[in-house]
Amino acid sequence: MTVLGVLRRSGPALIGGAVVGVWLACALFAPLLAPYDPLKSYSPLISPGGLSPDGMRFWLGTDLLGRDILSRLIHGARTVVVWAGLATLSAYVVGLAAGLLAGFYRGWVDTVLSFVANTVLSFPVLVLYIVIIVSIGASAANIVIAVTFASAPAIFRIVRALTIDLRSRDFVAAAITQGESDWRIMLVEILPNASGPLVVDVCLRLGYTAITIGVLGFLGLGLPPPTPDWGGMINDGRAMAIAFPHLVVFPCIAISSLMLGLSLLADGLREIANAGPGGGEG
Amino acid sequence: MEQILSIENLSIALPRGADRGFAVDGVTLQVARGEILCVVGESGSGKSVLASAAMGALAPGLRRTGGRLTFQGQDVTDLPEKAWQKIRGNRIAMIFQEPMAALNPAIPVGGQVAEVLELHGDLDRAGRAARVLALLAATHLPDPPRIAASFPHQLSGGQCQRVVIAMALAMNPALLIADEPTTALDVTTQAQVLRLIGELRDNFGHGILFITHDFGVVAEIADRVAVMRHGRLVEIGPADQVLNRPQDPYTRMLIDAVPDLHRQVQRPSRQAEPALRIEGLAKTYGTLQALKPVSLTLRRGRTVAIVGESGSGKSTLAKTVIRLQSCSAGRVLVDGQDFAALSGRALARARRRIQMIFQDPFGSLNPRRRVGDIVGRAAVLAGMTRAEARARAAELMELVGLKREALDRRPGQFSGGQRQRIGIARALAMSPEIVIADESVSALDVSVQKQVLALIDDLQQRLGLTVMFITHDLRVAAQIADYIAVMRQGEVVEFGEAEALLAAPRHDYTRALLDAAPGRHWSPPRLAREA
Prior knowledge:
Radius of gyration of chain A: 22 Å
Distance between the termini of chain A: 9 Å
Helix content of chain A: over 70%
Largest sheet of chain A: 2 strands, antiparallel
Oligomer: heterodimer
Number of strands of chain A: 2
């Protein structure tokens, strides 16, 4: 089924897809869409829609250092999309591999991997992030490592459960009796049939990771300044939020809307997956 | 004779977009007091919808578009749901296919029978308890007080079905509707339940509407038979007439497809060298001995049927031989090589010699892959190049009676019988010497089953395959096997040439199995060709 076909069949997926699409476009075409340079200082603390002394209009206002909030949000989308995407991807590579191995072989492989996963999952996620980032330092690459470490166990558990189920199907038995190699059975016979629930999970997890990056930015553990970062923007504006709410309101809306969009998209995809079991047919 | 249920010209429309307009199309039939009317048909014939209409419980989306329904002289066609609730479980009762699913797992079964009495009757607590015990005794359950206090999971499938029947009998209904009540049961249990249902008719005079797909069951129990196809009633009449002198061409085709338990065909000489020797093969799970040491020889180009009830170890035997699971002891010799002892690349290479045809045509093909990839991949693994494999797949499609175009489609676009053909093509793609068929026709309708059995038989003759055919159905075994091995509790209790074993079984258990085979005294007349 094509992406468009999916969107047409579900209202929530359509709305969610549109919101996510807008942010994706922002990330892709940030330099073209942003009205100003996100790093350049114009005039501090202009209210939304206000004019600077030299007559430039700032639709969402400017921050403490006089930078255009709209431009920073648009460029910030790039940060979120790139790093949330990479971090989720990396977590998925680890979680998929471990989940397939544990679910396929069971036995001691499963015991060891499940033990590790459960141990990691027993820590509060936020504490885990802070410990990791504080100990290895705040940088984009380290955010990817932290997210992988914290998210992969959850992905592992989903993939493992799906694999255990699919492993018992007759088409897997048929592949075994043909002498097919184990890795090919995992990748060709099992993984494609697990993709339905995983696609839903990818959407949700992208949202969580976007929030995580925001939270880390807010805690000052995100990307080093002056990179535009939604969480960092909220943190920067926090002290003045009563007097100048636009400093925090717009970045908050940005994070919430992306999260909402991804959740709606996930809901829609789930709806469609449930409506047609074995979605690969036809 | 007093008519209990009368259905006149009943039509029930399917929702828009279904493959046909009507689930039930102008059906007229009556059920009289003290008679069993069997409604028989293949899947999708509308027989279950008819049953649900007869108890005023159509599934959502279905709609009655015409006809009348009369129950004990009362027109119930347009009865409101409230009034139906007073009739259902009280004067019309239902027996379901899956007894385990019909019972609440969290309540002792006695309580569940009592609930029916509480809902519809006016007995006090003590009266209900006494009646529950009487009902359980009437269905021949041993030690009724103990059974009444048991939860469903503590009872066997047959006992659960008896409890369901006791619930159905609670209010002494005029009409019993039984929808495939024995399909989920083993053959010996099925025989007991069928006998019980026959007794109910004789002793209490219930009218019974019995839905089934199994002509053996029909021959065993029916007074009259109604045959349905695509929602239409194609033939109705006394059992003897419909079973032995069917008039309608479809009925004739169906009956002709039923395998005969008493096979007359003599097979050519059976002397052949061994293709597969199983020696002392055993499998234990913890303390459970699923397979006690089994020894069996399969001769080249011959078919051995392994028959037995659930839990007899016949599937375990198949899976252990083909190395889907490891064995605890024993050898599996193919041309003197111990298949059970191989590992790694040697095992992968040897696997092509033994292939399997699976039971469930819907679960045995990866829904995401194209048929050409599924069949072609098997050929590649057997050592062909991609181009050769492609040609081989096309050749195999024709061999199993499908079109070449099938290669470009996915399994979802095929019917059950067609998928089973694809499964056979996949097994053959590796040019195996031995094929293990694990209940390969059990999920198929009888007419499709006949075609698939004929295909396996034909391929065996042409390719000289050695076949190990696992089945619970003695009729199928009689149809296809040169030899039969009877399994029980992980052991082969009897092994012999098919005709001899069926005609004169030596072991008590084989005899019990044969006695339990529904409709064993009925030989389907061979008549389709004349039609």
